[in-house]
Give the backbone structure.
Amino acid sequence: MRELFFRYFFLLFLSLSFLLFSGCSDRSIGSYLGNINVFDTDTTRSNAVIKTKVVNQDFNLTLDMYVADFDTDGYFGYAIYAGDKNGVNSLIPNTTAIFDYQDPMTYKSGGASGYVVSFLNLNVNQAVLKAFVRFDICLAKFERNTPSLGEGTITTTNYDGSNCGTVIPAVTHEECSGEWVWGYSGTIPTVIDTPSYTAQIACDTGSTDIEDQIPCYVTYDSDDYFAVRPDKFTMKKADGADINLLTSALDVDLNITAEDFLGLASSGYTTSSALSILNPPTYYRSDALIDDTASMLGSVSITSNPNFTNGLSTNTPAVQFDDVGKITISIQDKTWAAIDADDTAQDCSPNGAYICGDLNATFIPASFSISNAHLRDANNTNFTYISNDHNISASLDANITAVNALGAITHNFTDNLWENNIDISFNVHTANIPNIKRDEINNANLVFTNGSAFINYKSTTNNNQLRFNFDRNKSIAINPFLVMGNDVTLNASSTYTNTIITGTGIADRNATFLYARSYASEYSFNVNNGTVFIYYENYCNTDGNISLLPNGLDSNISDDPRWYVNTKHNTLLNGGTLNISQKNDFIISNNGITETHNDISSTTLTANTNNFPYIATMLHTPKSWLIYNKYNNNAINNEFKVRFLNQSALFPISGWSGKASSVNVKSTNNFGTVNTNRRSMW
């Protein structure tokens, strides 16, 4: 009895020792069966690692198992578990496989020890942070060198819960496995632990002979942990809108899916870990080539991180890009497969540890900013002649800048990168003015640089000018009027498919509009030649504001109290007299037009005839905005009369020589000679 007590106590102590000190990843069947491990097929026994795998993608592992010098047969099972080998773990569904040792495995037999090398084809249908492979082995048959049984004897007596006896029966798969191995709830064999087979589970033969303690059930774990990750991220705009017309620096709400190898949402990928984003992104020029010259700028940011449940984002994470152009946004989860940091490439390659996703998108400006807009009189002077011909017009200059939603410049809105053609129009809100005529910019490339372009009032390029004037009737003179800069609104727009980007601005400064004419009085000469002078005048009647005239309150009238000489007229800038000729005849010739002063034109006329006195109507042809004929709105010339007397100065004809009595209330400079200085009203 005492001997049995100590034997029982000794076995109980060993059993407790096994439970306390044995490890799942380091179990052995001693000299019979041992050193079972699995690892990637591209590694070796000395570097037995399992790298990161992809959900629902088949993969192979090398099975490396040592078989001792005996023949054995039985059941071999394996499954993939999530969690810790020696702690909390759980079986991953649909990863279990069971087969007989001899089918389909090939191993060394016939009394020779050695390694069995085979391959396991596996597939994991969910994402796992930390996984391992567990092997469950049941020695359903064990043949000893017992002559009475003979080599190869197989018994089929089922295990009934009693001791194994002197004849080792075959243990059924269900009995041997029980709920320890494959979840079966049937009978679990009686087990003991023995000093010869540390960390094993053995059938109790009822014998006190250590050699009769037959291994019955054992579990092994792979040496290496590994992660199973989703294949990739896919991203779509949450509202379903065009992903290629996103607004710069504006949050883009996304639906993100962590897809498995089959393109389905990855079960098990449940996380709120922050995603990383690749900066700078991949830039593409407008010619679709990657920008390899570092010409493009801009950065991408995640403004809110996604929360995933089984591969689907449960919120709408947002990203934004602060410039314009086509880019590839790359998001990455670098932490999911952290368990493989020492054996798996830390990148987005197909065999890498990162979960990655790309979004190709085109970003456009949020708006245009119009600044430093100036209203300028024609040729940057202080007046503009009313004209149907826009060669003399008030003009606008301005800076146009493409900006993002935060008001910052989008540098990539640049010529040869991502400038988009632009329209610029304007409105004049001044009351009581004639119909406006304008030149605007339509669908033009303004050659933006670093997101900005300057519209130059001096531009001579068609379709790159902002200028305006008003309808002019050659028969109806009107009073001066002022257009104030803050009455002029500029509007910029650029069309992207169905999206229009706009911007507005207000001008400063003012423009004064004048009705002008070129004018020559009637001249009489005592000889057959003389010099005539052509003045440039502006209209202002008693209802008009004389202070708007270039000479202001110091303006001088000519021989009509409604017309004032503009001494600030510049024939080079504001137009002069192009030609002088005789109406309906060629008797009178001239020696060409001389700009005596910038504000006066002159020529010498000669009457080539002997028939005196000779009276003729002369035509002087100025720029169109200087023609005035109160009887003919279609006139193309201005007219004046001239008389040649060809008489001695001693006998002048009364009323035709000297200074006309009708000339000015305020004096006008007179550049005639003593014989040719007369100006009169006919």
User: Anything to note?
Assistant: The CA atoms of residues 526 and 648 lie 7 Å apart.
